[in-house]
Design goal:
Blueprint: E1 3-14, E2 17-28, E3 32-36, H1 43-51, E4 58-63, H2 72-76, E5 78-81, H3 93-103, H4 109-119, H5 132-145, E6 150-154, H6 162-179, E7 182-186, H7 190-196, E8 199-204, E9 207-213, H8 214-220, E10 221-227, E11 239-245, E12 249-255, E13 266-269, H9 272-295
Parallel strand pairs: 3-7, 3-8, 5-6, 6-7
Antiparallel strand pairs: 1-2, 1-4, 8-9, 10-12, 10-13, 11-12
Helix pairs in contact: 4-5, 5-6
Length: 296
């Protein structure tokens, strides 16, 4: 499997604080990848390392087989849309397109102008006068017209209203299909990932908790509800992701490739949000367990 991004024991330190540490991940080509995790998990740092805006303190990272930002050819392969969808407030929409053409050797001017026209953006308007959704669409247009092999988006719709988010994600999905891009999209909004992404990575405290194609992950994860039972009494092929108990009842999220035949359990499927929260809860529970052991 070809990788668009591969990191091994990757770390980034600011002074004495590690923003990312011991991160190992392998992102396959040909997918729209949702990168999700809590604040402080290291998502933005990982994406900036991939885009070449930051240099690693430890470990190694390759993007499309090369070092990030290692020369013009490597830079041309990667498009990046940051969280604040950066544009220049004093420049017009047309100015941005001219600047993109000057800076990017593979610039597709016809595509950029056609997309701007389709979005109804006036080329003479300054970016500072555009709405948040329009600025986001302009930033996405700049990233797409670069004709990258990999497009990286860091929380691009975090500050947008629901309609602007929907329009942005719809445009991204259409462009991905049309131009056969690999995409890595970081977001807190799992509902957006459900509509767009076919591959998921959950990152918590720099560590990948789960990674895989969304359809396969949803098919192999289940919620079990039934009489109270200790996790160690479950079959060995049912890997417990999270557990919740009352005096009478247990609820587990498990990962298994085998059918579940135990009549004591009510088995339900998970949504993508359920899956993400289960892995985040697993990490939190593990942190609590370690803290208790340290206190002892």
């Amino acid at each position: 499997m070809t990788s668009v991004l591969r990191a091994q024991a990757l770390g980034k330190k600011y002074g004495k604080r590690w923003a990312l540490r011991e991160c190992t991940v392998d992102i396959p080509a040909g997918h729209v990848v949702g990168l999700v995790g809590p604040n402080g998990a290291g998502k933005t740092t990982l994406l900036k390392l991939a885009g070449g805006q930051l240099q690693p303190t430890a470990g190694a990272i390759t993007v499309l087989g090369g070092r990030p930002a290692d020369g013009p050819a490597q830079l041309a392969k990667v498009g990046f849309v940051a969280q604040d969808t950066p544009v220049y407030a004093a420049l017009t929409v047309a100015d941005h397109l001219r600047l993109g053409a000057r800076l990017n050797p593979r610039w597709d001017d016809a595509m950029a102008r056609e997309r701007i026209a389709r979005l109804g953006l006036d080329p003479t308007h300054r970016a500072g006068k555009l709405s948040g959704g329009q600025r986001a669409q302009l930033a996405l247009t700049l990233g797409l017209a670069k004709r990258p092999e990999l497009l990286i988006l860091d929380e691009p719709v975090a500050s947008l209203d629901p309609l602007a988010r929907h329009e942005f994600m719809q445009g991204l999905l259409e462009a991905t299909v049309e131009h056969q891009l690999s995409v890595v999209l970081s977001s807190h909004l799992v509902s957006d990932l459900e509509r767009t992404c076919d591959y998921l990575i959950v990152l918590v405290e720099s560590r990948v908790q789960v990674a895989g194609e969304v359809d396969k992950l949803l098919a192999t994860h289940h919620r079990l509800t039934g009489p109270r039972r200790d996790p160690d009494r479950l079959p060995a092929d049912q890997h417990v992701i999270s557990a919740c108990h009352t005096e009478q009842q247990s609820t587990f999220v498990v990962r298994t490739d085998a059918p579940i035949h135990d009549p004591a359990w009510t088995v339900t499927q998970l949504s993508l949000e359920d899956l993400v929260l289960a892995y985040m809860d697993k990490s939190t529970a593990e942190d609590r367990r370690v803290a208790l052991e340290v206190q002892r």
